[in-house]
Design goal:
Helix content is 72%, strand content 0%. It has twelve helices and no strands.
């Protein structure tokens, strides 16, 4: 629990620092990843945010060694509350009434998941068949990249309403969901006896290569999306998709059983469903700021009478 809450804090702080750094940088795009990396690596504030995210990754490894996947995701979702508070304080991003209701649902989901835990009775799996992991992860990666590209094409339309970033968040969330499964796989090698054997076994597995792919693409995609959209909305969407993806597919892939006790099972499932409601409650478009003129009408060609 302590490691999960620490990971939440580090991830929330990291995303907010990166968002604040990106607001001071020129516009970045995934079509020019070299320029994007050059700009962000020149920002000390962005580097600080990245270090916080990397530290959160280390805390997440500890979590996956001690908690079942589904239970861990319910606790990770609680980080959205801290993220929204930091976004309001450090970025000046205001939340809507619907988003505040979603925060209440997150707190309730966290309480349900925590109450469903019972030390010594939950199974924590250590491995999964590589073929099954690849069967789950490869289509997810392809779908996330495709969805992000589709969102990019739609946002380039002149008369489209300002997007909140839901589509971006879902796309990046799929990539981070694969990354989360890879982290779970890496954590299984931390219990191996002997450092040399653990490293050799890890390199023979698909997990480090999945982490490299999702790390590279996730970095570029998330930074471009963060610069365009509110962190207080895009990150909750991304986190919810990641947690749901990891809880469902991770539990099935690694063969972790759900609680047998009916009450604990109901709490676990209800907490997961309530966390998903966060994603469903998010609006797809931002309301224009007061005093902002409406977009110009779409030009139509007038027909002249013969």
């Amino acid at each position: 629990m302590a490691a999960a809450l620490l990971a939440n804090t580090l991830y929330s702080l990291g995303f907010v620092l990166e968002k604040r750094a990106l607001t001071a940088l020129p516009e970045v795009t995934i079509r020019n990843p070299a320029r994007l990396l050059r700009l962000v690596l020149g920002s000390p504030l962005w580097i600080g945010g990245s270090l916080a995210l990397a530290s959160g990754f280390g805390a997440q490894l500890v979590v996956y060694r001690t908690l079942p996947i589904a239970a861990a995701q319910g606790i990770f979702v609680s980080g959205l509350v801290l993220l929204v508070l930091l976004s309001a304080r450090l970025l000046g991003e205001e939340t809507t009434g619907r988003e505040r209701y979603a925060l209440g649902a997150i707190l309730a989901a966290l309480l349900m998941v925590v109450l469903s835990l019972k030390e010594g009775s939950d199974t924590v799996s250590r491995s999964a068949p590589y073929q099954l992991i690849l069967l789950v992860c490869v289509p997810s990666l392809a779908g996330g990249v495709w969805l992000y590209g589709a969102a990019e094409r739609r946002t380039r339309h002149r008369h489209r309403a300002p997007t909140t970033g839901v589509e971006y968040g879902v796309a990046v969330g799929l990539l981070y969901g694969v990354s989360s499964l890879a982290i779970k796989g890496v954590s299984s090698y931390l219990t191996s006896s002997g450092l040399g054997g653990a490293v050799v076994g890890l390199l023979k597995s698909p997990y480090p290569y999945l982490l490299l792919f999702t790390g590279a693409f996730g970095l570029v995609m998330s930074q471009a999306a963060l610069q365009r959209c509110r962190a207080s909305l895009i990150v909750p969407v991304c986190t919810t998709v990641t947690c749901l993806y990891t809880a469902v597919l991770g539990t099935l892939s690694f063969g972790e059983a759900l609680p047998h006790d009916p009450v604990r099972l109901a709490l676990r499932l209800a907490g997961t469903v309530l966390a998903v409601s966060v994603l469903l409650a998010m609006p797809k478009h931002d309301q224009p700021a007061p005093g902002t003129p409406p977009p110009p009408p779409i030009a139509t060609k007038e027909l002249t009478p013969p």
